[in-house]
UniProtKB/TrEMBL annotation, chains A, B:
Coiled-coil ranges per UniProt: none
Annotated Gene3D superfamilies: 3.40.50.2300, lambda repressor-like DNA-binding domains
Keyword Transcription regulation found: yes
Protein name per the record: LacI family DNA-binding transcriptional regulator
Amino acid sequence: MENKPKVTIHDIAEKLNITASTVSRALNNNPRISELTRKAVLKTAKQLNYQPNNIAAALRHGKSHIIGIIVPTADRAFFSSVVRGIEDMANNLNYKVIICQSYDNYEKEIQTIDALLSARVDGIIASIGKNTENFDHFKRIQAKGIPLVLFDRTTDALEVSQVMIDDYLGAYKVVEHLIQQGCRRIAHFTSPKKVSIFKERLRGYADALRDYDIPYDEELVVKSNLQLVDGRESMEQLLKLKVRPDAVFSASDYAAMGAMQVLKENKFRIPQEVALAGFSNDPFTSFTDPALTTVDQFSMTMGKKTAEIFFEQLKSGNKTAVPQKVVLKPELIIRESSLKSGT
Amino acid sequence: MENKPKVTIHDIAEKLNITASTVSRALNNNPRISELTRKAVLKTAKQLNYQPNNIAAALRHGKSHIIGIIVPTADRAFFSSVVRGIEDMANNLNYKVIICQSYDNYEKEIQTIDALLSARVDGIIASIGKNTENFDHFKRIQAKGIPLVLFDRTTDALEVSQVMIDDYLGAYKVVEHLIQQGCRRIAHFTSPKKVSIFKERLRGYADALRDYDIPYDEELVVKSNLQLVDGRESMEQLLKLKVRPDAVFSASDYAAMGAMQVLKENKFRIPQEVALAGFSNDPFTSFTDPALTTVDQFSMTMGKKTAEIFFEQLKSGNKTAVPQKVVLKPELIIRESSLKSGT
């Protein structure tokens, strides 16, 4: 293992025959330094393998140029795509991004916030875990005086800017589409959790039924954790009803996939006998047979918008007067699993 | 926003009528402190909303109890599952995990290492980006004297412990299976990159052909970035050959999915006319129609094994004499896309 003496800004200064403070300013993108000088400094810094002592700098200036992102799981296409949108903007502004996963676990969510604060992030962007009902740990971020912005899974219990899609509208559009396809007995897979996205989707479902004079039937609304296996169980439960549903609108693509498997195993024709729709437009939804109708959430846009608000807040020294709430419009993606035309 | 005076270990000590150093020891899990005292301290710490000044502690002890993980993308099921395996063990040992994505971008990979070192991680676990051919940035981690362990996408250019699966064996098994299904003109999708996993899969492909006396045909080996769109293009290219292949073994599930789409669009029967196999056992491979034959990489096990080696190294003060190389055996998952029996 190497163990060379550490390269400092003085070494860079000496090599370029300029002062150390000019080097420091150049490295900190001070506008008073010419582009030419800045480039020369960066080049020399790289040649010498200079590594800024960011931890010391962070303690001095209170800036690490690192943003923390908390997501339930980074492997859902939706979350990873939002993260990508945030990273794109962050990288352009010379910020780095570190990610923590809460796995929808309340205790772990608290720990991830500890970890990010320990890592001295300049601010945190988060999507709240499904099981979180107390938000004190998020208040700790605010108490530190650093920006906190929420996206997708948000809460009004915190005084904080948030970016979300109109889950109500997305759900309403799906159910309206299913009704227009002739479905009358439309089941809904939802979550028992307090997270607003599922409540909004349920509200959209209920309102669409009401607007088309279809009675809301409690036995068609199945609550679960919305994973693939839950979708399977929910579908099996629905198939035991005296009158089976002629459509299922699942608040998650994975649960919709579980339902599709059970329907195919039981030789039901999709969409002719049971139409299916999910929510999120996960990439796999276009790989299934039939391809799954779903709702696109413009995740990259959500990421960019979230980052925009975050950096505004950061620039203003976290003094933004009124938290913003940005609601993006989702898009209904109609595919074969619900399109009965021609049948 | 709150701005209360910061709670210290002295406040906890006062409340419990014990010394501050006992509180400190209890918080640091010192075995000399009784379980009863430790629990009382943790409870009071929580009540008072005590937040340890980990950054100061890190500077004092050189320990942040945070591990950094670098993956190309966290949204691939394989990587997220390895990360989960690592996190499981880390959490049990009271370590927290932060993740950075390199997006297979060399410059970004360097920056993620900067970010993690700035965040004062106690060590780094990484899977190398597809485009990385120079490893100096990884040497910087080693120069810091903190553990570095690589998994899956590793390199022998670094003196470092690594955990991987036997990509050669996985590929060999796939091709042997395709030959046993009667396929004789087996194409292979591979990457032009230096990452060893793809070289090993290509070697397994070539050796299986050789062992079964099937000539290696350069025009059947298609190099690309192995994303879905690349798989589509590669398949289109293969369909233009004078004699089309009767099977495709793709080094990636996504590229195999692209090939499946093109074959279905062109009304080829899978597997009767063209058999298909991927690599990684991404969850979507069981959702496709036909379901995709693939290779399972035991990603959770890989994560656990990687974490095990990492923590051994950490415990020994990063003084492990000889880097370990652990090679896990993969499993062939045979599904409809390659199973011709009965036709």
